[in-house]
Design a protein that fits this description.
By secondary structure, the protein is α/β, with parallel strands linked by helices. The chain has one domain: SGNH hydrolase (Rossmann fold, 3-Layer(aba) Sandwich). It is 47% helix and 13% strand. The protein is built from 9 helices and 8 strands. Strands 1, 2, 5, 6, 7 and 8 form a 6-stranded parallel sheet that branches. A two-stranded antiparallel ribbon has the order 3-4. The chain is globular, with a radius of gyration of 16 Å.
């Protein structure tokens, strides 16, 4: 099975991050129970000094190059990924897409209805490349802007409702779609380093949202587990 991570800044990560992609790689190694591969056209982290995705400075230097693959970009959303996903799926022969997008769209580019339209375009393009591709989609999760900007918070809530409807409408037996649950007890004050981007505990919670959705719906992998002491150890090394 070939997994592709698709996302924005929370998925690509910045120089020095572990990333939730790293946490998912660890989870798959523990629980998948068979051969798998992480695929995608990119492998770098975002470098703030260069304002570009050019860093290979992962928090764990032993994170292997073959597991760093992704299709994610700092400041990118459904709007940007919909035109890219077809070629990415076709080239990498992806079987499962783990997608975390939407915050950037709603914050800068499109309203909730337009963003939902781009979700449909994304799914259509992915299926054109692989008619049996599976996908797990994460809703827009809590973030600091939604605390201070009521209209933006309303758009996030409406988009999440539209996303749930889109998943229900587009789900098929041959190309299943899942809506992951918002991570339980996600606290922007402790699970992020700036109110938006995940720190170590937030990375674990994002990975768990995807892992648990796949396990419960498709019996892919096992339930996510990460000992509290490992979260704390990660936090001290970051």
């Amino acid at each position: 099975m070939r997994f592709m991570f698709v996302g924005d800044s929370m998925t690509i990560g910045r120089a020095g991050d572990y990333t939730w992609r790293y946490r998912m790689w660890q989870h798959l190694n523990r629980s998948f129970g068979g051969p798998y591969k992480i695929v995608g056209p990119r492998c770098e982290l975002y470098d703030a000094m260069a304002d570009a995705a050019v860093s290979t400075d992962y928090a764990d230097p032993d994170f292997p190059a073959h597991a760093r693959r992704h299709l994610a970009g700092w400041g990118k959303g459904w709007l940007h990924m919909a035109p890219l996903i077809g070629d990415a799926v076709r080239t990498a022969r992806a079987d499962v897409l783990l997608v975390s997008l939407g915050l950037i769209d709603l914050g800068f580019y499109t309203n909730s209805d337009q963003t939902a339209d781009n979700v449909q375009a994304f799914v259509t393009a992915a299926r054109s490349a692989n008619p049996h591709v599976r996908a797990v989609l994460l809703p827009v999760i809590p973030n600091v802007r939604a605390l201070a900007d009521a209209p933006f918070a309303d758009e996030c809530e409406r988009f999440n409702e539209l996303l749930a409807k889109t998943v229900a409408d587009l789900d098929t037996d041959t190309a299943p779609l899942l809506l992951a649950s918002t991570p339980a007890a996600y606290d922007i004050h402790t699970d992020t380093y700036d109110g938006t981007h995940p720190g170590p505990s937030g990375e674990h919670k994002l990975a768990a949202a995807f892992a648990d959705a796949m396990h419960q719906a498709w019996d892919v992998g096992g339930p996510y587990s990460a000992a509290a002491e490992s979260w704390e150890a990660s936090a001290t090394r970051r």
